[in-house]
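User: two proteins, same treatment. go.

Assistant:
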Amino acid sequence: PLLNQCFMSVPEQRNGCDCGVFILEFMERLLTADFEKFSKVLRTESVTEARSEFNKLFGRKWFTQVDVAKKRHQIACLVRD
């Protein structure tokens, strides 16, 4: 499949402690994405077209370090409550 051949630009953690938060943010974004559009990315034959469709769906950066900090804060609040 094309997905094995196509490397997408995705956010990367900048420290050694946010890997779980990044996984949660990635999964939330994937699970709330438009399934039909995401399926189109997976079915696309052209790497260039797949990247273009991927960027249309998720944006060039998916999410930012600020989004990760917000997610960390949300999780902390849930744990405290």
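Protein 2:
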Amino acid sequence: QEEVQKNLTSQTQLFNLVNQEFQKLQNQLQAVTRERDQLRQQNIALNAKLANNTAAGDKNRASGDSLYSSIGHVPQVNNDRPVSEPFVLEKHFPNHHKAPVHSVAMSEDSTRFVTASWDATMHVFDLTRKELDKTLRKQNAQRQEQMGGLYSVAFAKTAPEVLGCTSVDKHVYLWNHRTGQQISKLGGEKGHQDEVNGIDFHSGQQVMATASDDTTAIIWDFAEGIPLRTLPHPGKPVYGVTFLGKDPDRQYLVATCCFDQKTRIFDMRDKKVVTTLEGHADDIIGIDYAAQGLLATGSDDGFILIYDTKTWKLLHRIDCKLDISSETEVKRVAFSRDGDMLAAACSTGSVALYSGFKSQDKPTLRQKLSGHTDCVFDVAWGTDARSSGALLVSASHDKSVRLWKEVL
């Protein structure tokens, strides 16, 4: 017994030492990340200053500056300076969630964004002040009932004050994010029977769609809080769902992505499958629609597939393993507001940013956004009110969120 006790004591001491070293390394990593972000901002400022100086020099040369004339020559400016990146980090939000951040959504007017986490909370951020505005969490004073960990979040497009989120506890929650009050909790016998993974709101009707591990997607009347249609899938979890806009040709179509590596297009009026899209070799996690008629899917196989929703033909097959790293898995994907760019959240802690979706040419990698220290799972687009440039928010399993801004 004494020998066993000595071994236990020795192992405990060893564990404590290893844990201390791990904490030190984690603190060092956070310090290096902060220093890197600071250096990047300094580099951007220096580039801007250099550009201003160059412009001033051009103006002086054009006007025949007397100083240049007196010394008999005009100094040459080196135009081979580094070009600033299209997107820069505007702000890092590292200390709000206590667990991985699994989803993020931007309001239609880009005045706020909301994050949803496995810690069972949603944080509403004010983009004008770039600060946390309020925290939404399920609390029932009578039952002491808590909302489960959250998998996805979205703003209602026809009711801007409504926010929907899906949970591991098999329910869908609707909130008024302006008042901070919960509107309803949807589930039970007529709802999902397993974890709810994805959510989307229709842009022209008062309906929403949710996707679940119970192998179904459900179409809801979110104002009345009742299910309208249940869309069955053959035996595999359904992870994502998106409506295909409000144009007459596609206003009743809804797309789902499933762990059977297929994407299905349903007509929600009669629940029939219009077409089934194939091409991925692993679980499909991300799905999004662009108004010009494009459908994008992202998969753990590392690829993004782009389909034409008029012909259902595959237009582009984008290899993120080639552009980012061989270990890359693609999680959720999102088109920019104008439909020309696509952001892909990647398992390797980065965001792959592609552009050129409005032209006939193949889209190209525009930028790799780095900084997260764990899997980036979701991204959301907005528009900067001052510059009219694009905003992008990335949500990561490192428990943090990063706000990126387009440099015009």
